[in-house]
Predict the 3D structure of the following.
Amino acid sequence: MPRDSFEVTTDPPPPPADERLVYGPEPLQFGDLRRAGDRNGHSLAVVLHGGSWKSTYNLIHLAHLCIALRDLGVATFNVEYRRAGDPGGGWPGSFDDVLHAVEFARGLASRLVVVGHSAGGHLGLLAAARLKVPVVALAPVADPATWDNPAVEAFFGRRPPPPEGSPLAQLPLGFSHVVMHGTEDSVVPFEQAARYAEASRGEAEIVPFPGAGHFEPIDPLAPESAVVCGVVRRVLGAR
């Protein structure tokens, strides 16, 4: 029976990272660094997990993708941040944490790409707009005002969310970036990515995964994940 890629969220935790680094004074302001040697120079993927911005989800499940990237020569900084339900989490605290994490990561490498999945893709697109860093967004909540999920109000404390919390409202970014999304995603509909890419007027390269759902892009046992890793390496200019 084929694997359900949702299982990546409940798979046993992978081996610990090389180092846990603190980027701020709050208990949840840390990230796990996995080094990849000098194969691709001073480059780094800053990885943002999803989970509907809820405190019940953390960075562990995205560590599997981080290991896959590391094995291909891409160092990763897997970021934890305050979420809805955590003191100081929600909007804008979660976004502030991500901004601090990306700024911190700039001191770790000369080339960065932000890689975010789902709610992490939402925060990654916003961070890219603010800090002008490359981004690869996986199944992102690109237009939270139209996402039919109670997590939107729980995160923003209101509906509709403020324009500054919408990646769609930040367009144009002024540079090219990548959005990757399964066409059969039942969590964050593919239309989120399609609407965003159309509004970007060519800035956003959209990579659809025909027939794929929400978790295949971050499941190293799914073929879509290999495509994601290839795109991340391309954006970083990896050899």
